[in-house]
Amino acid sequence: MSHVDPTKLPALDPADPAALDDLLSSDEKEIRGAVRQMLDQSVEPYIAEWFENGAIPNIRELTKEFGSLGLLGMHLEGYGCAGMTATEYGLACLELEASDSGLRSLVSVQGSLAMFAIWRWGSEEQKQQWLPGMAAGDLIGCFGLTEPDAGSDPGSMKTRARRDGSDWVLTGNKMWISNAPFADVAVVWAMTDEGVRGFIVPAGTPGFSAPEIKHKLSLRASATGELVLDEVRLPESAMLPEARGLKGPLACLNEARYGIVWGALGAARSSLDSARRYATERTQFGKPIGAFQLTQQKLADMTLEYVKGYLLAVHLGRRKDQDLLRPEQVSIGKLNNVREALEICRTARTILGANGISLEYPVIRHANNLESVLTYEGTVEMHTLVLGQVLTGEAAFR
């Protein structure tokens, strides 16, 4: 066994003590850096104000900026999409959520839900009509599956689509739909006589509206709305021809959940970095609070959970790039990384004390946002039962 001189080992970076950067290629680091540079210029100076005001005033300009960088549908091929790897997309999600979960939600809903639905299940004509504009950020999409009485059980949806001559007529309501208030197009899932089918509904179609949901204390920098479908008449060409049954929307949700596996780590990293810096600057009893054992334990525990979550995300990303990633494995990542990221944010808040609840720091904003991320795209309970079924062979959903 060769002897290693400790003095010649690479120095430890307190912001990356496990040297996680060594897992990434130069291309992956370059893409991550480009996303971070754009966010530092266009988002970071304003995000606390956007969160406090509950709106992004320049949302269309920001979406076009995302499009120009290739963030929208970035892991899809063709039609103006960037065609990046799953790991590169994951790194982008991490950086987006390090700024704010609402921004990662916007990109995720656009690319992994609305665009992916059309890309995977749509006709060539539908792809040509919608995807280039959505990839550029000129058109914003949303994804209508969740209903007031159908969340974890989408098969019980009440939205109906019936044939009327050569047309389809949709009636129903969708709830908690990100991007809905300003979306140009909605992918809506409805029950038909032949099972669940997907439809492309352009904004402005008679009978269609998307009122915004107000009074949120989470994801405030993300516009959320309801989709109201009151006898919305659509041509046959509005149906996604390749999607039949719940397989269609569930495949889209799996794409979005994969982005969350990475994104939640961004919120965790931002909070952990804030807590670590604060612990070196805040002095009590004559020395920085980072010199006290209990504070160091908190920082060590947060770092351990972040490192483990990052290793899991990279592993799942590599599997996805090899077309080996199963939905159950995405559930493992979503369940672990969001749960641990939320705990990191909560612990970071205790290190900052009263300052931890101020928007002068990002911690309480990330914690509030992750309360939504914890339960959307599959609740803790549902992903727990998915893993439970893997372990036992028994389905406990019903």
UniProtKB/TrEMBL annotation:
Cofactor needs: FAD
Domain Acyl-CoA dehydrogenase/oxidase C-terminal: 244-390
Oxidoreductase found in the keyword field: yes
EC number, UniProt record: 1.3.8.6
Top-level taxon in the UniProt lineage: Bacteria
Alphabetical list of PROSITE patterns matching this protein: ACYL_COA_DH_1 (PS00072)
Catalytic reaction(s) noted: glutaryl-CoA + oxidized [electron-transfer flavoprotein] + 2 H(+) = (2E)-butenoyl-CoA + reduced [electron-transfer flavoprotein] + CO2
Ranges of residues in domain Acyl-CoA dehydrogenase/oxidase N-terminal: 26-138
Keywords: FAD, Flavoprotein, Oxidoreductase, Transit peptide
Domain Acyl-CoA oxidase/dehydrogenase middle: 142-232
This protein's pathway: Amino-acid metabolism; lysine degradation; Amino-acid metabolism; tryptophan metabolism
BP GO terms, sorted: fatty acid beta-oxidation using acyl-CoA dehydrogenase; fatty-acyl-CoA biosynthetic process
Similarity comment: Belongs to the acyl-CoA dehydrogenase family.
Name of this protein: glutaryl-CoA dehydrogenase (ETF)
